[in-house]
Amino acid sequence: MTNATADDYRWFEADFARLAEAYCITLVRGITPVEVLQVLKAEVRGHGIGVAALDEHAYETAQVHEGTHGYLGVAPLHGWTVMVEPNGYIGTLDGALSHLSAGRAVVSHFRNVNAVDHFNWFENGKLRLHFEPLFAYYRDGSDPESLVTAMREVGFATEEGSSADLDVVTAASFALAERVTGIRLTPEFLESTQFIEGLAPIPSG
User: Fold this and answer.
1) Looking at the whole model, is its pTM more than 0.85?
2) For the chain, which ranges sit under pLDDT 50?
3) Could you give the strand order of the β-sheet that contains 117-123, starting from the edge strand earlier in sequence?
4) Which of 2, 30, 147, 149 has the most C-beta neighbours closer than 10 Å?
């Protein structure tokens, strides 16, 4: 487990303000980007460089498919696949995460324009930990206490009655995802990586 904290990811909201307003990032271990698209029954829509292009294409596609499909980009990183959804939420749904995590680990974090947020850790098709970053003192899953120390160290308010710092929780979600996966996301990765883009049906659940 790394020693990442929220301070290591302050750049996300500063440098990627549009994406930070509403995003979902999912990390899937031991599976290729193409295989992720296959699991999600996604239609490949081409390739794009960086999340700016992905965000533009997602916005264009949402005008036609809003509510039925989600637009996403996938790319490899050190044995994991990183899935980025601008204004999307497939990576929060049990119907997607249970399948993606069959035989492997998956971590996702999400925020929308209303500041609704989620952090999920699945392994072998089962939920180990879920919480809302703004309310990190309420946790569920099969192993809800295993990351409490790490959660506190990255910047979450983990005790009931404690107040979350709204300027920290998104960066803290990135940091906790790194601690679980060992994968550090960087501005350079989000800016310059070639993503395979796809349109996936929104699963139930």
Assistant:
1) yes
2) none
3) 43-49, 194-201, 69-77, 80-86, 23-29, 105-111, 117-123, 126-132, 135-140
4) 147
